[in-house]
Amino acid sequence: FHEVLSQQSNPSEWEFRPGPINYQMEALEAVNGTLWEMPRPENPVVALRNKAYLYSEDMVHLSLGGHKEVARGIRDLLLAQNKTRSNRVEPWDSRDYCESWYEQPKTNITKLNFQLKKFATDPNGEKLNNGKWALECKNEANACLLEVSNNSTLPGEVFIRFMAMGPPTINKYPHVKVRLQHAMHGIGPTFISPEVNDYTHRVHLNRVRTLGVIPPGATSRITVERLGEPTEWPFRVTGIIVTPNDRPHQVSKVTEDKPPVVAESSTAIT
What is the C-alpha to C-alpha distance for residues 108 and 147, in angstroms, rounded to an integer? Predict the structure, then answer.
């Protein structure tokens, strides 16, 4: 690979496309923070040859070496700014509830027509169970159910985490309609298209979508309904989050997918 890059490739044939950092910049302004970035290459060929070890096989996610590089960068930044550790924690009366089975096949969540399955192997091969896991909504089911509780003293905003693919032309996941029972100020039903539009190359990653807000102490059902014919891969849920929201009429900003136009029959793209 290195030989091909060096002898048969020209830097003009490659380009570096940094991802959007709008959310990071908003967070920096809110906390007066500092942005640390990995070095941006001037010569993409040299970068591929010398820095490819920082990424896993998909060249999107970081490898173990990449995570170490980020850790070193953050440590050096803190040292350069003479930051000191603070054990002071602001008081709060509620906690987020976050459950993820993405990297470990364990969950106590109540479910119907969902099956916990391993769908990928970790290319680094160093993490527990060496794989990625999801609750798969069975293709033969008309609807799949999850049950989530809000144990906070405040209303709780409910988020669902799911797998998505991009670009959309290679997506193998179905469009779904998701409903949140007992929503105080819901945004639904929520139509989800598990597609990623941010990249021109193939990516397979997690996405998060807010479903609405449920009352304190409530137990609510999340109903997932597939739209259209079964696709090559079933809809995959990788986690659930419930976070206190003291303004239940203001749910988090979302880009709402419009109800898709689904053909009566479809063919999965491989």
Answer: 10
Say how far residue 11 (Cα) sits from the centre of its chain: 32
Between 242 and 9, the higher pLDDT residue:
242
Tally of residues, the chain:
270
Of 3 and 36, more confident: 36
> Chain centroid to CA 236: how far?
12
Structure tokens at 3: 């030989």
Q: Pick the more confident residue, 261 or 263.
A: 261
pLDDT for residue 78 is more than 80: yes
Q: Report d(CA 5, CA 26) in Å as an integer.
A: 38
C-alpha separations of 34 from 50, 215, 219, 266 in Å = 27, 36, 40, 47
Most distant pair of Cα atoms in the chain: their distance: 64
Whose CA is closest to 62, among 166, 72, 134, 1?
A: 72
8-17: long-range contacts at Cβ-Cβ below 8 A with a sequence spacing of 24 or more?
9/45, 10/45, 11/43, 11/44, 11/45, 11/46, 14/44, 14/45, 14/48, 15/44, 16/40, 16/41, 16/44, 16/47, 17/200
Whether 125 shows a pLDDT value over 90: the answer reads no
Q: Could you tell me the pTM of the whole model? A: 0.70
Amino acid at 197: N
Q: Count CB atoms within 10 A of the CB of residue 128.
A: 9
- Residue 262's Cβ-side half-sphere holds a number of Cα atoms within 13 Å equal to 20
